[in-house]
Write a structure and sequence with these properties.
With 364 residues, the chain is of the alpha/beta class. It folds into 2 domains: 120 residues, Lyase, Ornithine Decarboxylase, Chain A, domain 1 (Beta Barrel), CATH 2.40.37.20; 224 residues, Alanine racemase (TIM Barrel, Alpha-Beta Barrel). The chain is built from 10 helices and 17 strands. The protein is elongated, with a radius of gyration of 22 Å. Bound molecules: pyridoxal-5'-phosphate (PLP).
Length: 364
């Protein structure tokens, strides 16, 4: 940590060193409240995905607002959240190697952990290790709801669930299905149709299991783009949305139910005529979902990024000089956050706190 990063509460957020991730706390808290209220009104629980925020600071705010726990994409993230005091963790992902299964046992000593399963051999290995440690691991079956990533098909699910119920190291809790292939569909009607198709498959899985006397307590699904569709499907018990907390630039192209809370504060390092260069680059902002955009001042078009330089064109007569600050919005927050050590959070432009991104790089 450099001394330059020990800022006093109350300074202007534009006084901090750049490039830095800044988050408007009022907006992020409002997003958390809005999603939780929506879930409450629709009688579903919130289990927000923390792959976006990677920090117990935000997870605790979500839990304080009413979430029943959080999701973590990776075991490393779950270890970090458990160490940070989060007590209920779902990993909606597969944990398959012997080393990782041992680590999962350790996490489960600190917090209640559940994971997604979809493979017979994996189920046996998980059960053996947990039984050896006199513990039980909660599992949910991942169903392929059309994304064609991981997950079982409907004709496999009964035998697979019976197999889990035969394992003394496991507790069968329910099912999940992530409709990642529909969350970004631009036209709302199309998004509703495709999401409903995906969720009907998940509910069909629940029905088939229950017809075979296998009780299903959890039916978990949803991303930010489908929160208001998936939550209305009878039988869904909880939502896994994550990006809504900060809202990605890409999601904002689709809908604006939640407000953008995160941006990258940058500095102009060069100006020639209508071209400026700012100090972010591929090492500080991701572009896996497209070029970031300059949100303030207006009239600046971001053109290209190299490792440490970002070239922009002044479209209007913008009064901007070397040393001035620029606010940039990434299209994808998750991958940008993973490049930084800290958030600098503010309320209405006044610096509040430096928050460590503890889960940065915890992808193992
Ligand atoms: C399994 C799973 N659940 C939930 C989410 C959250 O989606 P979003 O970030 O769109 O809210 C993701 C995102 O990739 C995911 O992979």
């Amino acid at each position: 940590m450099t001394t330059a990063e020990n800022y006093k509460k109350g300074i202007q957020i534009t006084e901090i060193d750049t490039p830095s991730i800044i988050v408007d706390l009022n907006i992020a808290e409002e997003n958390i409240k809005k999603m939780q209220n929506f879930a409450n009104d629709n009688s579903v629980s919130m289990r927000p995905h923390s792959k976006t925020n990677k920090s117990p600071y935000w997870a605790k705010k979500q839990i304080e607002a009413g979430a029943i726990g959080i999701c973590c994409a990776k075991l490393g993230e779950a270890e970090m959240m458990a160490a940070g005091g989060v007590k209920e963790i779902l990993i909606p992902n597969q944990i398959v190697t012997p080393e990782k299964i041992k680590r999962l046992v350790e996490v489960n000593k600190k917090s209640k952990v559940m994971i997604a399963v979809e493979n017979y051999d994996n189920v046996s290995k998980l059960s053996e290790e947990f039984e050896k440690n006199s513990m039980k691991l909660g599992v949910i079956i991942e169903v392929n709801v059309g994304m064609d990533r991981c997950g079982v098909e409907l004709d496999e699910i009964v035998d697979f669930a019976k197999n889990i119920n035969d394992k003394s190291g496991l507790d069968f809790e329910g099912i999940m299905g992530y409709e990642g292939h529909t969350v970004n569909i631009g036209n709302f009607e199309d998004r509703v149709n495709e999401t409903t198709k995906a969720m009907n498959k998940l509910i069909k899985a629940k029905d088939i299991l229950e017809e075979n006397n296998i009780s299903v307590n959890i039916v978990s699904a949803s991303g930010t783009g489908t929160y208001n569709i998936t939550s209305k499907i009878p039988g869904i018990t909880e939502l896994q949305c994550g990006s809504y907390i900060f809202m990605d630039g890409n999601y904002l192209k689709v809908f604006d139910d939640f407000q953008p809370a995160l941006s990258l504060l940058c500095t102009v390092v060069s100006r020639r005529d209508n071209r400026i260069v700012i100090d972010c680059g591929l090492k500080s902002v991701s572009m896996d979902q497209g070029l970031p955009e300059v949100v303030y001042p207006r009239g600046i078009k971001l053109v290209s990024l190299s490792e440490e330089h970002c070239k922009c064109e002044l479209e209007d007569d913008v009064d901007i000089q070397v040393g001035d600050k620029v606010f940039v919005r990434p299209m994808h927050s998750d991958t940008t956050i993973n490049l930084h050590d800290n958030y600098f959070v503010h309320r209405d432009g006044i610096f509040d706190e430096k928050v460590e991104i503890v889960g940065r790089g915890k992808f193992k």
